[in-house]
């Protein structure tokens, strides 16, 4: 395993108890595979991040080939201030159909925007922005997520949100166990058919809890689907680019499961699959198609950022992507990050006292933005190290074995 890159954070942050999206109160996470008529799991899938009580939302799109839904409403100048879920989908533009299933599932649970307020309390519209990755040539191009897939994923996410709410309540009360377990990463949901440069990609998470003396003890967490053109591996060493960003010993869990160190043969095999470990064909050899791309994800925090400040977090997230994926934001990528703030306003008797959306000072925002970038860098590594060989695409682990 690597001998360097373990240690601390510029601002003293440490990973959350779960080291994932579950560390942010008010968030739930669910995955589902696409299925055929008989219920058999197919190659693509959907990942849903829910905030049943609503969240301040924003987005930033940097790639040249995005596939998105409902991103315009997230502009700070636009009226809607509340987001209920983010759908991360496989299946290219076809996968956007899954967002309709997410909406239907939320509506059935009474989660959504009350468009006419108290005049018609049962008329709700769930706000569900979405983004897709292009994965049609991995597995079967006909294996696309649909509304049923989105419905299944949001049901899992809502169950997870309830479970996490109970655990956060125990944690806040000082009762054990509170938050437990490790974030699950790998070939899940929208990451089932993801490819990270020349190796198998997937879904990855990371979180950071800031000191109260620096940023009021706020938590920042990231969940993303890693499917870029660029390489996630240093072609000189074979190690993932973002390995040095780890907090403490968070990546040791993979070596505890007998993850190999890079081998000369493994590195040669990786470079033979794509130019410099990317999806661009290596000279004189066929290689992965450079058109199968895009990294999409969600940054979540309990800091009471405004909609414009949430956008700043989404912008900063791309800095972490550009450190963990080289190059990033290519014309063939559709790199998109959403940001959600779930700051609790439930105890406010007067709307003027509401915490959510109140905003943070510039110094705190700068720390949160930097932390968001670091979490993205770390989450990319988690996705790559946890990935399994699937659909003919070898994982980093298997290539290096």
Report on this structure:
- By secondary structure, the protein is an alpha+beta fold.
- The chain has one domain: L-amino peptidase D-ALA esterase/amidase (4-Layer Sandwich), CATH 3.60.70.
- Helices cover 26% and strands 19% of the residues.
- The protein has eight helices and 13 strands.
- The protein has helices at residues 98-108, 147-173, 212-215, 252-256, 264-273, 307-324, 362-386, 396-400; strands spanning 28-35, 41-61, 68-69, 83-89, 113-114, 124-125, 130-132, 195-196, 199-200, 202-209, 219-226, 296-301, 336-341.
- Strands 1, 2, 3, 4, 7, 10, 11, 12 and 13 form a nine-stranded mixed β-sheet that branches.
- β8 and β9 (199-200) form a beta hairpin.
- The protein starts with 27 loop residues before the first strand and ends with a helix.
- Mean pLDDT is 90; it is low at 346-353.
Strand coverage percent: 15-25%
Structural class: alpha+beta
- What's the alpha carbon Rg, rounded to whole Å? 20 Å
Percentage of helical residues? 25-40%
CATH architecture: 4-Layer Sandwich
| CATH class group | Alpha Beta
Q: Could you describe the largest sheet, including whether it forms a barrel?
A: 9 strands, mixed
Family: Belongs to the peptidase S58 family.
GO molecular function, one term: aminopeptidase activity
Protein name: L-aminopeptidase/D-esterase
Pfam families: Peptidase_S58
Overview in brief:
The protein has 401 residues and is α+β, with helices and mostly antiparallel strands. It has helices spanning 98-108, 147-173, 212-215, 252-256, 264-273, 307-324, 362-386, 396-400, and strands at residues 28-35, 41-61, 68-69, 83-89, 113-114, 124-125, 130-132, 195-196, 199-200, 202-209, 219-226, 296-301, 336-341.
